[in-house]
Amino acid sequence: MSQSLRTFLGFVLFAAALAVAPLVFSSGLAITMMSLMGVMVIFALSYNMLLGQTGLLSFGHAVYYGLGGFCAAHAMNYIARNKFGVPLPAIPLVGAAAGLFFGAIFGVVSTRRAGTVFSMISLGIGELVAALAGIQRSFFGGEDGIATNRVKLAPFFGYKFGPQVQVYYLIAAWCLICVVLMYALTRTPFGRMCNAVRDNPERAEFVGYSTQRVRFQAFMLSAMFAGVAGALAAINFELMNSQAIGAGTSGQVLLMTFVGGIGHFFGPIIGAVLITFLQISLSDITKAWMLYFGLLFILVVMFAPGGIAGWLSLHTPLLRGGRILNLAPSYALAAIPLAAVVVGGIALVEMAHHMLVEAASDGSKMHLFKIAIDGASPVAWIVALALFFGGAFGLKLVWPRIDDAWGEAQATGEKA
Amino acid sequence: MLQLILFSTLNGVLYGMLLFMMASGLTLIFSMMGVLNFAHASFYMIGAYFGFEISRRIGFWPGFIIAPLLVGVVGALIERYGLRRVHKFGHVAELLFTFGLAFVIEELVNMFWGKLPVDYQVPPSLDFVAFTLFDTTYPAYRMFMLATAIAMFAFLIIVLKRTRVGLIIQAALTHPNMVAMLGHDVPTVFMMVFGVGAALAGLAGVIAGPALVTQPSMAALLGPILFVVIVVGGLGSLGGAFAASLLIGLVQTFAVAINGSLVDLIGPTANTIFGELGNVTLAQIAPLLPYLMLVLVLIFKPTGLFGNRET
Fold first, then answer.
1. Pick among A47, A123, A279 to test the B interface (most B CBs inside 10 A)
2. Does residue A10 fall inside a structural domain?
3. Into how many domains does chain A fold?
């Protein structure tokens, strides 16, 4: 099977998955969650155009997401007021235009240099725009934000996009378009030049390209797609507030993209889907979900800098050679201490939180993994500590074994 | 008017010195290891919380000594077992590591001390009025903060300029490989510098905690300002960091103190020209000014005011 055919089949599968998903997961929560996932997939992929493909670490990408969203919200209100015949599915184009426009303005000043200077300028611009959002109330709507109503727009083939499931399909369609476009972009000479500018700017200059111009173009396009994501978010929530434009959102997209894996095109998709899922499902269960995210991020940075996608792709040659099963015993062995570390760590954090912050009002009794425990009893603490440190020690013991199994699987692969 | 200028100058210098206590460590760490430490303001926050916890159990003065030392140990451990591991993956990975660390520290503080500000109070021994000028009183605790900051500044200068360790650090700033060749243990020097930088930030937290608000968002509020300071001053330049700290301290204090808007300045025509921005007061713009400075400096003089290296 040729490469291009496989890619084509991959996108057909992706489109099919998008189309079938609401039929399989049909609960209201699932559809809301999947709508948000679609938005975040676009946002994370647009971020990876900078970080993964052009090597630009931005701390202010939410600016373009947010401005795209605000412009889209204002456009929707304006269209609804004047009864223009523009249907809702065209609104993301407004976001794209806004992203492109602001990307061009801020790109001129920020992409003249790469590296830390770029990162710092992006941080500065991010903070500037976030601070401005608090001052310029007519555009950013102050603390309430800008509300809008997607149903007020002209119907699109009879659809008014009131029900969430219709919005999901709108987002899914835009998501598919953007993913295909962004993937296609990586296969163009321009996409290759972005990689060259990332890996060896000096050589790219010698070949006759202006690295500054390549960075600028990549930056604008990335901002454009971020604008689309922002516009879809405005449609989805029917509200944009200054939180969307702030450092928190910028940090979140960085986290998603990196955990997913910046070295592969599909990495940010995994990251966006996984993190959004965890975010929505964990935030009900524990107050410490942000902490677990942060820890996950640090662990990925320390032990798997390729992210989830990088880790998965290590296995493809083994899978193709049919030797993946050779690894199974070692993985199974490692899973036991790993589970102990995770459970012990979670128990320690949750018990400490309960005893220090909540025990004063609620008493020391608490529930953990649906088990009732007493945070004041030393037994619970000893068990948690034993799990955590025992697991860590166990991991250290089995680690060489996994290393060996890896080496063996790789070695037999090279012989074959 | 004179009163306003005098007190604003005093407060501005105080704020600037506080910034410098953190910026000095940050810029040293950056110039030695090439790491822009996103978690530096988090050490400041941990310092404040440790100080609070010790002061409510033992007293303020033991906390004043112990808390910065503890923060220094935490910093050194993080460098030894975290940052050094990530070092081989390059600068972006290091930056991301500290970014994640800042996130985790904020959440840990949230978990252990709650989201609300804690009641970290000025010790009774320093809770009196230092002097009264033009009917305005100035608290002694602020004078104590200023004195601590100046003492720390003197200590830093003496260590860097007059001791053997200082010599090695200065040499490692520019020629880390050569210093290693000469037989010095550069990784350990790095760890020490990181630890001392963290301890200084912790000290700033201990003394700033009672005067400002000790809350989980204090790191996120201050962190970006620190970057502004070291970038505007010039990365790796201690003198630049000092000047930029004072500059930003003064600019922010005066912007808050002088309450005027464009309408006040040029009359109602401002509204026709600038729209609602005409009514925005300088105090409202104050948080925006440092970032404006950052962006302008990076565009027009990327080496900063006193620096000689572009990252």
1. A123
2. yes
3. 2
